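Researcher: Quick test of sequence recovery. Tokens follow.
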């Protein structure tokens, strides 16, 4: 009896009919909506790039140029006060401090001789260019 009841219940539940036309139309509509959304999003980001990012980059560039110009004028003023040369940088013991030498040589990868002191590693202390030259002369004798 239970078998007959089960079969009648299963047959009473409507089955889904496969309609390929409905499925294709739904898929094509979804693809069209996706393409439309992608085009709108691309247009939005293009506008943001041109109307927000590029002006922001231009403003930042002008600001940096102005600050660097002021810095160069200040350096020229300092040079004029000291007879055409920048004053010597104090050789404080906490400047250019290293615990061990670099594998590629005495200076960091970002060393700039116009800006940084020319420091050289020697044992437990950092030597400046003059003291390093004197040390090398003493070692060669």
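Model:
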């Amino acid at each position: 009896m239970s078998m007959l009841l089960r079969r009648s219940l299963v047959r009473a539940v409507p089955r889904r009919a496969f309609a390929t036309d409905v499925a294709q139309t739904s898929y094509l509509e979804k693809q069209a909506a996706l393409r439309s959304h992608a085009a709108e999003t691309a247009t939005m980001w293009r506008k943001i790039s041109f109307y927000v990012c590029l002006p922001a980059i231009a403003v930042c560039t002008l600001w940096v140029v102005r600050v660097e110009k002021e810095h160069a004028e200040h350096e020229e003023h300092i040079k004029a006060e000291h007879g055409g040369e920048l004053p010597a940088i104090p050789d404080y013991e906490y400047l250019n401090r290293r615990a061990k030498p670099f594998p590629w040589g005495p200076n960091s990868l970002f060393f700039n001789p116009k800006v940084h002191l020319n420091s050289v590693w020697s044992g437990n202390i950092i030597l400046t260019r003059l003291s390093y030259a004197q040390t090398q002369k003493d070692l060669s004798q």
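Residues 88-141 form one domain.
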